[in-house]
Queue: 2 jobs
Job 1
Amino acid sequence: MCLGIPLYVVEINGKEAYGELNGVRRKIRVDLIKDLKIGDYVMVHAGFAIEIMKEEQAKDTLKIFEELEELV
Amino acid sequence: MKKLEETISLSFGNGGEKTSKLIEQIILPAIGNDALNLLGDGAILNTAGAIAFSTDSFVIYPLVFPGGDIGKLSVCGTVNDLLMCGSIPKFLSLSFIIEEGYSFKELKKIMASINNAAAEAGVKIVTGDTKVVDKGHGHGLYINTAGIGERIQGVELGKNRISVGDKVIVSGNVGNHGISILCARENFIDSTIESDCAVLNEVVLAILKYGTEVKLLRDPTRGGVATTLNEFTEGMDYSIELIENDIPIDLTVKTACDLLGLDPLYSANEGKVLAVVSESIAASLIEDLEKLKLGKDAAIIGEVVSYVEGKVILKTNLGGKRILDKLNNDILPRIC
Amino acid sequence: MKLEDKELLDNIKLLNQYKGIVNIMEVCGTHTVAISKSGLRQALPTNINLIAGPGCPVCVTPDIYLDYVYELALKDDIIIVTYGDMIRVPGSQPEHTLEKAKSRGAEVKIVYSSIDALQIAKQNPNKKVVFLGIGFETTAPATAIAIIEAEKLNIDNFYIISMHKIVEPVMRALLEDEELSIDGFICPGHVAVIIGEKGFKFLEKYNSIGVIAGFEPGNIAKALVEIIHSKETSDYVLKNVYSKLVRKERNLIAKGIINKVFKIENDIWRGLGLIENSGLKLREEYDRFNIESIFPVNYGSNEKNKACQCGDVLKGKIRPNQCKLFGETCTPDYPIGPCMVSGEGSCAAYYRYNF
């Protein structure tokens, strides 16, 4: 009931936005987020951003992805 | 010569004048050769020694996807199967089932792909067939290819050759094709992931240079790496233990899988080899593969173990172990 | 070694030093899978009992809805649109799955997002497009927003069936069951994003330990350490180790959207029976989007396999491998009950990952 990953917001058009991570780009809805800015990271579940991640924490999560790349 | 219409109608499959037009104006110009041009009921061929024979049918949708199309796939699929048998692919048959209304323009592109792939694999298409079916059947185009390869000397491949201690190798990043097709068909994401569809002659020949130190080869197509490795262990007294950390996965593929709730180990590959080889040559083989375009991400991903029978075990990053079953349902996006 | 990895390994070492017996329930199906898939379950000592709970929306959707959706799918003018989780779940008969319906000619489409379902409705104006609303508070807003959009855009062939449920009532039902002894709960991190820490504060009134956790093994292990520490110190204050995302307060926008579209009603949970005020159903103002107003659900009793013990598994009364049907009659290939058919179901997770 809770599957989600962080995406980096690259474009915002009202309630729609585009999020990206590691070459994956997906249109998302941002109805649930207040004061979203381009460059924010959001946790995305079923195509909806459910919360903004604070930058340091987003970087922590992303580190896990980056280090995966180093490992492989 | 009268100009062909734009789309294929049923009469192009009736064996008469229109069928001849289809062959002469679309098929032969793309893939013709001395054998095929004879247009006999079959081809008379010379081969050296024992042969391998394989067939596969292709019903993929969409017909054109990032990294290839059904034409390229139909050549790669059978060529790679022949290579996995330890043979050099030589000849293919090519059969089309075309849905009424399919465009000639599209068919020409498919033919060009077939020609390119065949040239790269060094195979000749020597015989074939064309049928046309009513609109509503055939999903545009279905293809069957069958192939003959000449057995390579000094190579013996089979499950019964596998011993405890052997290493499991993959030639590169896993899961690309399955995820690519799923996303191309269903638009689950807005970026593209390319299929890895490719002929594997160079990679397989590099592996088979090690002769009898190579125990088994397979390309992990439907069901992915996990399902294919289960085929290696099913009914045997050994198991395969994989190290999760060592399995090469493209970061974009992994991220798409994380987003959608999919598992790359169960996603099809159309340009990768799984090999079970003697421990003594594993490291050297990886070095050889890394020099090849299609082997640069090759890795040792596991080994053959005896502490349990007939299973595929994954050792996680935490050191825990879990069983990797065969695929029993399609990979689909989840919310949980 | 990464800092997170070191912390994770330190926590696992700590957990292995603990000698007491503790029963911890992971409420959320995504936690069950994360614990199994990461190998965390195997890394823990046997005196720490991790019990999979009823937070798997697929597992707790009752037979009547699944039979209903199966019948609906077979109607000529209906397209069923759903998340992938639902496609193989059987109703009262093994044949009553959407996968089987598809093989019988039904139109069934899988989507990643409820908004994609709206697109399908736009592209198929001559069909009734029915979106299956499943999930807890994390996913309910997605369904609600799709309906609000459908209303705004005048899409008159878009329908939903709401099978959404909320977490608090089922956790209360477990806490009020005298047969159960659960020392602490791992609370679902993304539900907590929507309902806030406040949404789980009710646990304190039961003197039940609760720790809100995310889904990476490091965060889960940290939650386990917190639960055990709280048990040892009799500290029943709710904890949150997922504070990078979970705030004290709920997401007010989500709350507003859920309240606008849904009302809370009694609901049936597969294996658990009726739980009061636990389901989200469409408000009357949105009746025209409710497929139940055209094709009512038959809420009468139905046949079910009496040997199926999914209810006891969902409540944590028995482990999956203690069910008489587990592994022999009931397997992922031939599932009897929802706990086996859903990839997040405790039995499926147990079967696949436990070794």
Job 2
Amino acid sequence: MEVNVPDLRIAQPNIPPESSLPPGKRAADAAPSAIRKFLLSRGNSAYTDLSFQYLMALCGFSIFGIVLLIFVELVGRSQMAWDQFHFEFFYKVYTDATTNTVLYWDPVNSHFSGLPFIYGTLVSSFLALLLAVPLAIGVAVFLTEMCPELLRGPLAFLTELLAAIPSIVYGLWAMYALVPLLREHVNPFLISALGWTGLFSDDNPTGLGFVAAGLILAVMILPIISSLTREVMTAVPHSQREAVLAIGATRWEMIRMGVLRNARIGIVGAIILGLGRALGETMAVTMVIGNSPEIHRSLLSNGSSMAAVIANEFAEATSDMHRSALMEIGLALFIVTIIVNALARLLVWAVTRGAPAQTH
Amino acid sequence: MRTEYKLRSRFRAFTDHAATAIAVLSTIVVVTPLIAIFIYLLIRGFGSLNVAFFTKVPAPVGEIGGGMANAIVGSAVLLGLASLIGVPIGIGAGIYLAEFGRGTRMAYAIRFTADVLNGVPSIVMGLAAFSLVVIPQKHFSAFAGGVALGIMMIPTICRSSEEMLLMVPHAVREAALGLGVPNWRAVLSITVKTASPGIITGCMLAFARVAGETAPLLFTALGNQFWSTSLNEPIAALPLQIYVYALSPYDDWHRLAWAGALVLIVLIVLAVSLVRYVTSRGVLKGTS
């Protein structure tokens, strides 16, 4: 059956159909523009994808940017003190004209020496390490190897909580509970028992001083050292433990030879990380160290630390030179903690083979 | 020979028991002061906490009463600003490390630098913010405090969100890409959304850590005795106020400092417990 379909097509110009042309002359074979080539190769979301990738890379590089920013700002603002004192800033000793005593930090006469602060930081940090490291390793050994399963969770949670408490709260507790305890009971005992060493004199009856600062710092760095030590100890493969047990070792010998020996480097890294934290700790130290820019041999004397002097004096610094000197102390603190932390991270990562699971 | 052996094995057994005793003892020595700190804080803090603490501004020196309402609101403002700066950049850095830079040397360097930055003392961050914001503006401000806290949050959030994103299984990403979803869309709507409980808890952890920081605020936000929410003026903050009150010679202010410390501790314990609870449920369970 024939259907009469009217031809409604508009008259077309006489273009030969594409396929009759030889290949190479077809419109579809014409060289595509650069944009079309790009989109054809990657799909039509190429621009958005690329810009998203660059945006995320920018965020990633912001980490470098932050370090650079801090460094540049600190160097810039400490330029004045550096131009005046150069390296003398870190070891010069002045003499007070009127009383003929040794003087280090005198903002009124523009005498600035960072020596008492470096001394205070080092003494309080090393005292803290001395107290915290044996305890932290003991806790880590107990939690990893000896602890019954039921206790492990709550104890680990407790140590994690200890790490999360802000330092101002530690400082508050130290000032109102620890310092009176030291003043009444511990310091007299130390003076009577260990006064012969020359390290404990009774000049300072307040209870503040390096011992108080060292104690509170020890409490603060203990959870860090302990949890990192636990991490490196669990990273030691079980085959090591089993091998030592198989040749007849007791449990302590297994821990000593199989675990601690392999995790040695990581434990050193954990200790250095704790040192890094202790070096930079501000609030708790400021509240208990006594804040006097002097150097005395006695561990019970008042002192100051680099972070403490910045916290105390910066908001009220009167002269530009004073602020610049404090910025220089901040720069020294920044460089030292960067080096210490970098060293610690490298050591810990060497044992755990790559980034550890927890972000401490 | 036989007696030597018996002597030696007795010595070994003794050292084994001694080591166990020392380990247990050190755990007790560590845990007891910790519990003592908590209990002492709770006792001193609860005794000082009342409704006025949350609603009143500090009273004039010597008068009883008054609270820390301006400090709590000030802390909220500062933390809001810090999160605004720190969270997007931190999550962006985490996305770069997990999605686009995985395995590259650049990613290793960024991860390393972020960890090192985490260890830099917070007072140095405060000095940098002072130099960057306070000196050009010629006055202390809440904005400077927010900037200081914000750049402290970035490395922490970067590391934790990277870890959470690494836990998302490849099958999820490949399914999205196989369906023709553009890469940027797959990362944002599929991968990040799958890891979002973990990322949010990472942000909460950084938030809790920064909430207790005092040192960077000492000379950026400076603290304020009066009611202020403006970004261009000094603003009070809870840890800062605790510090000022603790060093003062007035008993009433000491009482307020203890109450403030209790509030801070409760906030942080809640955040840490919540983080533990959410991460224990796993990455994928939280989404469905």
